[in-house]
Every structure is written in structure tokens, then in C-alpha cells.
Amino acid sequence: MRQVAQIGAAIGREFPYALLRAVSRLPEDELQSALARLVASELVFQRGSPPDAVYAFKHALVQDASHGSLLRSSRQQLHAQIAEALETHSPELMDTQPEVFAQHYAEGGLVEKSVAFWGKAGQRSVARSALAEAVVQFQKGLDQLALLPDNPKRKRQELEFLSALGAALTAVEGQAAPETGHAYVRARELWERLGSPSEFLGVPYAQAGYHTFRGEFDLAQRLTEDLLRLSRQRNDSAGLVLGDYYSGLILLCAGRFASARPYLEGAVALYDRISHGSLVHQAGIHPPVGSQAFLGIVLFCLGYPNQALARSNAAIAEARRLAHLPSLTLSLTNGARLLSLVGDDAALRERADELVAVTAEQGFRQWRAQGAIYRGAAVRPPTAPPGPRHGCPVISPSWRGRAISQDNFKRPGP
Predict the structure, then answer these.
(1) Does residue 64 have a pLDDT over 50?
(2) Measuring CA to CA, which of 56, 142, 199, 327 is 20 to 30 A from 343?
(3) Which uninterrupted H or E stretch holds 44?
């Protein structure tokens, strides 16, 4: 009975009879007798009948105690056997529950397999927009990678994980969060060591974003200029899309609206859905969505409210079509900001409510906070006059004095 409980505990809080039989390799009558005693002791509950039965520990503490009673070497061997049995008897789970394989291979000491499955789990979570889960999974993959010999292959894998982790952290924690910055500092170091591969241009792009949202415009500007320079040298249109997009964003945040406009319009014009579709994996956002969303703010501040609303609505519509939640939350946030400036409180309430709902469900804390702010902004004091609010308050007051000058940020020639 103890052996069966230990194997079940290694499988998980719940364990199916078929998997238990495959791992234990006990005779049918002996296995069923041990399970019957476990059920009778009320340590384990049973649903269904063998061979389709599923068992569950009554309490997590019971599972932990059974699992902890295994010797380390036995536990490691058992987890490896469970993963191999799952691959043989339930191969479909490799696509639907890769995190289960990753955890068993990690416990089993099979580091390379664990790394591969943590990467698969993280990418699957990203595809489902479950980015808080993706953060945990990519970090577990990095923890496993640290156990492998330090060589170019490991550096490449680490860069892949850090790039994906940084993009997920951007949505979950925010672009200026310390965790996001730490991920991209290490990613930038690896990127340069590996010869600045073009497929990871999202690393310098995102690092520029980190410094932009911390108000460090000069540093963000230098990083973006480096990206544009490298992309022109390599005739890399994808890098130019990213560089134009972020150049426009930096100038917007710095209050240089007229200078920001051609960059953002250039990013939209240059973007091609077929050849640049994979940029979302590097940027975390679909660049045409982000460019149009920020362009809406720029156009309003330049005195074109109708064009601004058209761009904003186009960004939201495109994000909905793409069914990409980080892009949708970015476009909704900028759409709410624009409606706040326009003074359309009814539309602002509706947009802010949707933003809060989407971000609360996905765990996007930064954008959820902005949704709450704009929900509050929609409640105009009774004495306030209707109509647009004055000015263009898109820049934090603490940033204005640090804005880069028009002269030291000029759009590069063709």
C-alpha cells in the first residue's frame, strides 16, 4: 500500500489507474488490493472503476507526506518513469499539458527534456494570453538551464527564454518594472555575445521601452538609434518597423508630437502582415496596433481630433481581429486616454470598463490600474463644463524636464 501511495503522490494530487499501473508494473490483483486499502483508510478517494478509475488524495498534506517519504534517488527515478509512461500512453498530453512533462522531467533530473517542455509550456500559455502562467514557466525553464554546461547552445536557449520572459513580464508587471529590466539586461548581454542575431531584435527594442517608461529618454534614444542603424546595415525591414515604432513612442513621451508622427506613420506603412507577422513574439505587441494607438494620441495633440479617433478605433479593431489580448489592452488604454482628452465621458466609461474587465481576467496589473484611473476620470464633477479637456496631459510632470531636445533626435534619412 505504501509503494502505491508513493507512486500516486509522485504523479500528482489526482492519479489515474491506467498511469499508476503502467508505472508500478504490479500485478493487477495486487495493485487493486493496495488501492482498495488506501480508499478504505480514507486517505484517497475513488471515482469510477478500474481500468477507468481516478484516485485523489483527500488532502495535499497526505500527498506531500507520501512523496516526502521517498529517498531522493528513488523519487528521481520514479518521476522519470512517470514522464516516460505519459509519453507512451498519453502522447496527446505533450501538446495540451506540456508543463506536466516539464515538472516530471525536472524532478527526474532529465534537465534537457525539462527545459524543452518548459519552453513549450510557456509558448502555449503565451498563445492563450495566459501570460502570468507563462512568466512562471519561462522562469522554471531558466532555472533548469542554469544546471547545464555553459556553452553557446545554452546561451542561445537562455536568450530565447529571456526574450519570451521579458515580453510576458512587460504585459504582467509593466514595461518599467524592475523584473522586466533585469530580464532584458541579461538578454542584451547574451544577444551581443552571440553576434546580435536578427531574430532577437526584440531585445534592444524592449530594452529601449524599459528606459522610455522610466523617463530615461536619452538612453532609450541611443538604444533605438543603434537598432535602426543595425537594421539599415542588414537591410532588415523588421528591425526598421520596430525602430520606427519605438522612436515614435519615445518622442511622444518626450512631448515631441510633430517629430513622433512620421515615425509612427512609417512603422504602419512599412509593416507587412506576412513577412512581419512574427514580430509580435519579439515585441509582445503587434507593431501596427501599437503604432496606430499611439498615433491617435499624437494626432489629437497636433490638433486633429477626428483623425485621432479614427486611428484609435482602427487600432482597437485590428487588435480584436488578431485576438491578441496584450495588443487589445494597449489599444484600449490609449483609446481611453484619448477619450479622456476629448471629454467623451460616456464612451470613456464604456472603454474603461472593458479595459478593467480584460486586464483583471488576464492579470495585467499595470493596464488594470490605468483602467481604474480612466474609469474614475469618466466621473466628471457636477460643476465641470462638458467638452474636451484642455491641454494634452500625456506626459508625467516629472518627465517633462528630462525630455530630449528636437535637435538631438532627428529622423534618419532613407
Answers:
(1) yes
(2) 327
(3) strand 44-47
* 3-class SS of residue 14: strand
105, 83 contact by CB (below 8 A): yes
pLDDT in tens, 151-185: 999 999 999 999 999 988 988 888 889 999 999 99
Reduced DSSP (H G I as helix, E B as strand, rest coil) percent helix, strand, coil of the chain, to 5: 70, 5, 25
pLDDT digits (tens, 9 = 90+) for 184-202: 999 999 999 999 998 888 8
CA torsion, ordered 134, 140, 143, 147, to nearest 10 deg: -120
- C-alpha closest to that of 271 among 285, 250, 257, 254: 285
Question: Residue 26: CA atoms inside 13 Å, Cβ hemisphere, count?
Answer: 18
The residues with which 45 forms a beta bridge, in sequence order, are 56
Helix (H, G, I), strand (E, B) or coil at 195: coil
Closest by alpha carbon to 248, among 305, 293, 291, 311? 291
Residue 258 has pLDDT above 60, yes or no: yes
In this structure, what C-alpha cell is assigned to residue 149?
Answer: 554546461
**Euclidean distance between CA atoms 126 and 341, whole angstroms:** 33
Pairing of strands 44-47, 14-16: unpaired
Q: At what angle do helices 365-377 and 325-342 cross, to 10 degrees?
A: 20
Residue 389 exposed, middle or buried by CB count within 10 Å (0-12, 13-18, 19+): middle
Decide if pLDDT at 2 tops 50: yes
Q: Which residues of 209-223 are buried (b: 16+ CB within 10 A; e: fewer)?
A: bbbbbbbbbbebbeb
Residue carrying the nine cell digits 510557456: 122
What is the widest separation between alpha-carbon atoms in the chain? 84
pTM for this entry: 0.74
User: What is the reported pLDDT for 410?
Assistant: 43
Gap between the Cα atoms of 145 and 133, Å rounded:
19
Q: What is the pLDDT of residue 383?
A: 58
pLDDT in tens, 328-355: 999 999 999 999 999 999 999 999 999 9
Question: What whole-number distance in Å separates Cα of residue 217 and Cα of residue 295?
Answer: 19
- Cβ-Cβ contacts under 8 Å for 56 (sequence gap 6 or more): 13, 14, 15, 44, 45, 47
